[in-house]
Design brief:
The model has no long low-confidence stretch (mean pLDDT about 95). The chain is of the alpha+beta class and about 180 residues long. It is globular, with a radius of gyration of 15 Å. Strands 1, 2, 3, 4, 5 and 6 form a 6-stranded antiparallel sheet that branches. The chain has 3 helices and 6 strands. It binds nickel (II) ion. The site of nickel (II) ion has 5 residues, from helix 2.
């Protein structure tokens, strides 16, 4: 079922989400079905359970295809990550444009860690353990932030590079 995505200002987006006890359970299966359908419907790059009002540490991201919202970014495999853990690799950081389904129509420039290792469990109980960089690392940091009540504007330092997609596009910000 396509679920409404909560928008910034809703206090449910600011909670620290709970650990999932049974990743293979029926509750998680149903939540993931709704998350996948909602993300696909909105062409999102990723979605975190709190964005549909579910207070659990579950994120999904990647489609295996180039995302029309980020045409220059390499495809990310479709991934389910339950109870994720991040480990930053190195000091390097990189700025990039981010959007979020909880802030429709907006984009902002956010600095993120360039490289990281992430671990978690999928809905079959299998361990996921990857080292990634660049856009893939950015998406993971953005989605896992949702589980700690953090939205990307809370990571921003340059508010001159924050605005509505159409205006930023017209101003050549993404060129
Ligand atoms: Ni988001």
């Amino acid at each position: 079922m396509i679920r409404p995505v909560l928008r910034m200002g809703d206090p449910r987006l600011q909670r620290v989400a709970q650990l999932v006890v049974d990743p293979r359970g029926e509750e998680v299966r149903q939540i993931l079905a709704d998350m996948r359908e909602t993300m696909a419907h909105l062409n999102g790059a990723g979605l975190a359970a709190p964005q549909i009002g579910v207070d659990l540490r579950i994120v999904i991201f990647g489609s295996g295809l180039v995302n029309p919202r980020y045409p220059d970014a390499p495809p990310i495999p479709p991934t389910v990550l339950i109870n994720p853990q991040l480990e930053i690799i190195g000091e390097e950081r990189q700025g990039g444009w981010e959007g979020c389904l909880s802030l429709p129509g907006l984009r902002g420039w956010v600095e993120r860690h360039m490289r990281l290792r992430y671990r978690g469990i999928d809905e079959f109980g299998e361990t996921i353990d990857r080292r990634v960089e660049g856009f893939h690392a950015r998406v993971v940091q953005h989605e896992v932030d949702h589980l700690d009540g953090i939205l990307y504007p809370m990571r921003m330092r340059e508010f001159s590079r924050f605005g509505f997609v159409e205006e930023l596009e017209a101003a050549g910000a993404f060129a």
